[in-house]
Amino acid sequence: MLLVGRAVAGTSTVRRLVERIDDDMIVSVERAFHVIEYLADLVDGASLADLARHLDVNKAIALRILATLEAVGVVWRDDRVQRYNLTFRISNLGLRQLQKSRLLDQCAAGLRSLADQTGELVRLAIVEVNDSINWVHAVAGTKRSLQIDPNYSLEIRLNAHAIAKAWLSTMSFDRALKLMRRQGIVALTKNSKTAVEALRADLKLAAKRRFATSYEESEMGVSAIAAPIVVTTLSGKHECVGAVSLAAPTNRMGPKAFEACAPLLIETVDRLGKIWPLEARTLRILQPRRRRAALRR
């Protein structure tokens, strides 16, 4: 059980106030982040009971986590309906990070050009130093009357999303499979690939063609292709730092139509790789070193 609170601290100085998992992960921090992720997907917020069930903890623990997040300005409570919501501080932090890296300044024109030429939804995802990939930007094409909501899929499922498969295709299959298993290989639709050999063949083809596909694998009625952004790091190695996807309703674009757009997509990621912010490349090299140094202290 997580131990946080004045009463506990005052009566038991020998007991630690936080519980660690594998000596690396602090439970209270992990739970706080899960609260933020959970609330980010909800339009009307969540009650204390909802959040306690989501975290699989009792209400007292959930309340202390929420009180802390509220105190630092990340969460606010609507007293009229007793529901918790995120503040805009979270989005402000994300925007500050993007501005600091100059990432969108460099990439926006190329993404907009691809969206305008195809008329479809173009999205950019970034590979993080902790071996994960996250959406950071979306540009909707203007040529079509029927468009996909840029937020139609917020979580990137490694075995089902084209943008994830584009990233995984740049590494060994053993490493890719390890990452997929760490997240969990889940069938989101009847077309999702879950068998190891099917995943291996899919990533092998993606590496050969330089673009990955997802035909109704993450959501029925939506298909996509994606290509990795590969840069040359300061150490001279080639590294995938992100990926760009092109998505459209399946009834408008089939496999042949998507493949016809592949050259434009590959041209876009090649251009982004050449102008990728130097700070972003340096940060990816330095962060793991700083983390290791911190652990040694």
Give the structure's gist in a few sentences.
It is built from eleven helices and nine strands.
Task: Break the fold down into its secondary structure elements and pairings.
Layout (H helix, E strand, L loop, with lengths): L5 H6 L8 E2 L3 E2 H14 L7 H8 L3 H13 L3 E4 L4 E4 L2 H13 L1 H16 L2 E7 L5 E7 L22 H7 L4 H11 L12 H14 L2 E4 L6 E11 L5 E12 L5 H21 L2 H19 L1
Antiparallel strand pairs: 1-2, 3-4, 5-6, 5-9, 7-8, 8-9
Helix pairs in contact: 3-4, 6-10
Q: Output the helix-strand order.
A: HEEHHHEEHHEEHHHEEEHH
Mean pLDDT: 81
Radius of gyration: 21 Å
Main sheet specs: 5 strands, antiparallel
Strand order of the largest sheet: 6-5-9-8-7
Write structural notes for this entry.
By secondary structure, the protein is α+β, with helices and mostly antiparallel strands. The protein folds into 2 domains: 6-86, Arc Repressor Mutant, subunit A; 94-286, GAF domain (Beta-Lactamase). The chain is built from 11 helices and 9 strands. It has helices spanning 6-11, 27-40, 48-55, 59-71, 89-101, 103-118, 162-168, 173-183, 196-209, 255-275, 278-296; strands at residues 20-21, 25-26, 75-78, 83-86, 121-127, 133-139, 212-215, 222-232, 238-249. The chain has a 5-stranded antiparallel beta sheet with strand order 6-5-9-8-7, sandwiched between helices. A two-stranded antiparallel ribbon has the order 1-2. Strands 3-4 form a two-stranded antiparallel sheet. The radius of gyration is 21 Å and the shape is globular.
